[in-house]
Amino acid sequence: MMPSIATDMTTTKPVGELTLMYLKRCGYSLSEIESWSSETRLLHDIGLCGDDILDEFKILQDEFGVDLSGFEFAKYFPNELSRDAYLISVRRILSSIGLPTVANYIYKRGVERTCSKYQEVSLGMIESTIKQRKWIV
Question: In which domain of life is the source organism classified (predicted)?
Fold first, then answer.
């Protein structure tokens, strides 16, 4: 589905059990999930934005009973039709077809600058959100 961002699992905390269930429900493979950690960020590392993240957060609400009434998507993720989402999506597409060097060379600075506009959401934060059944800033 999405390109995975490998992390050094010797220095990072693995994805929590609830997040593991959530990510499986979102359609990620076990190999993708195992390459991530609790520090992996949804936008900044995985490249989730727009309708993709809306769909995945809908699963948080509907299947895990999470109250996201205080969550402001615009603070954390670009809109589907924005230039920011386009730039991030192009990098994801290039990476998924086996051109990570080209993608990183061409888009690295632009993507980093774009992502810096948005607050981070990590998989560890998702674990806490599922446990508490509401978004905690």
Answer: Bacteria
